[in-house]
Amino acid sequence: MWAPLAAFVAACWLRLEQPASGAPRVVVLLVLALVPAVASRPLARGMLAVAAALAAAAVSADTVAASGLWARADDGLRGFYALTVPFDPHLHPEMQALVLFAIFAFALGIALAVAARRPVAACVVLVAGTAWPTTLIGGSGVLARGVVLLAGCLLLLGALGPRTAPRPALAAGALLLLATAAASAAAAVTPGGVVDWQRWNPYSSADQVSVAYIWRSQYRGIHFPSRPTTVFEVQALPEARYWRATTLDRFENGVWDEALTVNIAHPVGDRSVLANDATLPRRAHDPARWVRQRFFVRALADDHLPAAATPVAYASGGASQLYADGGVALRPGGLHAEDAYTVWSYAPRPKPAALAGLGAGYPSTFGRYLAVWGDETVPAFGAPGRAAALAQLFGSDPSARAYRPLYRTALRVVGNARTPYAAAVALETWFRSSGGFTYDEQPPQAQGVPPLVDFVTRTHDGYCQHFAGAMALMLRYLGIPARVAAGFTSGRWDSSTKRWVVSDRDAHAWVEVWFPRYGWLPFDPTPSRGTIDAPYSDASASFDAGAAATAFAGGGFGLGLQAILKLAREHGRGPVLPPDSAPPAVSRGGGSGFPWAAVAAAVVAVTAALALVALAKGLRRRLRYATSDPRRVAAACRRELEELAADQGLVIPRSAGPTEAAALVEARLGIDARPVARAVAEARFGPPSRAGAAAVQARRELDAFRRSLRAHLTLGRRLRGALSLRSL
Asked: Is the bond into 516 cis (omega within 30 degrees of 0)?
């Protein structure tokens, strides 16, 4: 009975790794967990459990030194709250040790509970040992694991519980059924798991936050915190740059994910230089072209080190770090408040003409950046056979076939673009401005098709993961190396400290496209989220639309290129077309005249809002009088008198009696409110026999007071009173 349950726990935890740990070590750990349960006496079990735990720690961490064991455990626990799962155990050995020891610990707990014939305790350990990793990673198969968990709990209750009293076991089983169903359903619909597990960090303050949800491509919505938290500051030039934390290079099973490859950094003075990255162009190795940044961590709970553009060198200040291709750096144990590090990045800002003249000369090793489904790649941009290769992929793989609408849309948007840059900026402009897309952090859910396909073809509503994920995949379909980058927008420039101040609200995902001579360049298809200080991108305030349009002259114009040409004409920087080229067709209307439609829409919106205020006030007043109790009618009259006075700037204390309230109104507004006060006082405090008539009289006197007030006030004061929010 114990063996299948322990194997189930191990399988749940191993899902956090990719690739998973080898079976021999897991089997050794499970055997160690079973040994203490063999003893018959509790004292002997305890002693064996301690010995087994020490042995399991050594097996998990590959060391027998006590100090080394503690350091591994400490680093693993710190990194646990800053890690994106599934993680690569080769890059995160501390996390691998923690996962392996967790397998042993939960298997030991189940074994000891079974040996002591404690069914409820065994069920608790089983639920904790399986539900915890399941909620961390979510994904498909959650419901199936919930069913297995339920079966395991019922097995424990039936086998270990008292046979003469089955009712408690049945009741417990029913409760487990409900709990499992709820947990499974929640995990199936909640991005990132049932709970925000990354905030369970005993090593950090309450203000330390994680933004790893930005690079978990679940497409089910995100929730930025209501109160922004500064996660780090950057001492750098005032040019707006994005701070990249990681890259999502692999698209599989409908989502973008990390596929980091270990890189070796060479020490050069006080720096660790990433010289072996095949994606770095030749000019990236020239220190004269590097941009220096100094990062000061404030409250970022993560193990990725943000940096501008493509990092090429780090100075960690003595902290141990791991490096991956693409300039990604990771700090085992995660970042902590007051950490600081220095980065040098290669961050070119080429002009549109420079990029428009580049072809598709990609290295032969770039197949991973042209993969459109797992390891399935397509020929590079402009290469013969690309359409045939995609047709074969769509025809042979049903999962890949569902993404054919993205490929067709990409062709329609870029038209007959002659260069990779033309295609990239056309897609970016289409997403940002001309395609009818809307930024929405809680977009509609996909209906029967993959989320990215539904986003591009139907809803047009999404957040940065949708925009970046769709554009990167569409570029790959066109044979252009692209990937999703995740990190932060530039943040806020503090001129007094000469630093960029970046909060968790600035977490973002965008697209990186590779170009010969320049390497990876950022493009941002998400509207209204950030700006890149680069003249080649539509996401930049310095975007040179005229130069971009001139670079595209003579080619076929798709939807995205038409938008760029229109933008260039509206800014008085039309393209230089060859004499035999006809002007491209663009949508009619719009123009650059006075925006009457926008003004009319604003007027309608303001009028509707004001009318809603007046309607709400009138509705609330009527609801107060929806009673037959004369005492409550009198209270409603008193309250309405207070509100009428408040709308004119007079606050009547709630402690004031009817006579005092009438005196304040007469002194401030010049209207006699004594008849209202007398009727209200009699209805509220007089004999019950006269309360009804007094309540009716109070309403009459209040109507008379209101008419007198309106006659006394100017039209402007009457309007301000009707729309005042003081009485709401």
From this structure: no
Which token pair is 357? Answer: 């003249």
Is residue 229 within 8 Å of 498, Cβ to Cβ?
A: no
Q: What is the Cα–Cα distance from 547 to 505, expressed in whole angstroms? A: 34
Q: What is the DSSP letter of 204?
A: S
- The dihedrals phi and psi of 299, each to the nearest 5 degrees, come to -155, 40
- Tell me the pLDDT tens digit for each residue of 106-155: 999 888 888 888 888 888 888 888 887 877 665 556 677 777 888 888 88
Q: What is the DSSP letter of 370?
A: G
Mean of pLDDT over the chain: 80
Q: What does the radius of gyration of the chain's CA atoms come to, in whole angstroms?
A: 34
The distance from CA 505 to its chain's CA centroid, rounded to whole angstroms, is 9
Note the helical H segments in 577-670: 596-624, 630-647, 658-669
The 10 Å Cβ neighbour count of residue 583 is: 11
CA distance 320 to 309: 22
- Taken in order 176, 177, 178, 179, is the CA torsion positive or negative? positive
The structure tokens listed for 544 are: 């040179």
Q: For residue 42, how many other CB atoms are within 10 A of its CB? A: 11
Instruction: State the residue for tokens 């697209």.
Output: 511
> How far does CA 586 lie from the centroid of its chain?
36
What single-letter DSSP state applies at residue 304? Answer: B
Strand partners, 377: 371
Dump pLDDT digits (tens) for 521-573. 999 999 988 788 889 998 888 888 877 777 666 556 678 777 777 766 665 54
- Give helix 630-647 / helix 715-723 axis angle, nearest 10°: 120
Question: How, if at all, do strands 499-503 and 328-330 pair?
Answer: unpaired
**3-class DSSP assignment, residue 484:** strand
Written as one letter, the residue type at 420 is: P
What does the DSSP 8-state code read for residue 141?
T
**What is the rounded distance in angstroms from the CA atom of residue 339 to the CA atom of residue 320?**
12
CA distance 474 to 407: 6
Terminal alpha carbon distance of the chain: 65
**Tens digit of each residue's pLDDT (9 = 90 or more) over 181-206:** 554 444 443 333 333 433 334 444 44
Q: What residues does each domain of the chain span?
A: 2-199, 212-352, 603-723
Q: Is the dihedral of CA 674, 680, 682, 684 positive or negative?
A: negative
Rounded Cα distance, 509 and 242, in Å = 10
The DSSP-derived string for 372-389 is EETTEE-PPTT-TTHHHH
251: helix, strand or coil: strand
Tokens of 399: 């999962």
Q: At what angle do helices 630-647 and 688-712 cross, to 10 degrees?
A: 20
Instruction: Please state, as a whole number, how many other Cβ atoms lie within 10 Å of the Cβ of residue 678.
Output: 17
Residues in the chain: 728
Buried b / exposed e over 353-391, threshold 16 CB at 10 Å, is ebbbeeebebeeeeeebbbbbeebbbbbbeeeebeebbe
Mean pLDDT of 588-599: 44
DSSP conformation letters of 493-534: EETTTTEEEEEGGGEEEEEEEEETTTEEEEE---TTS---S-
In this structure, what DSSP letter does residue 110 have? H
Give the mean pLDDT of 602-617.
Answer: 66
Q: How far is residue 680's CA from residue 333's CA, in Å, rounded to a whole number? A: 70
* 244 in Cβ contact with 485 (< 8 Å): yes
**209 and 187 in contact (C-beta within 8 Å)?**
no
Contacts by 583-586, CB closer than 8 A, 24 or more apart = 584/557, 585/557, 586/562
Q: Is 479 left (phi over 0), alpha (psi -120 to 50) or beta?
A: left
Closest by CA position to 546, among listed 357, 353, 321, 276: 353
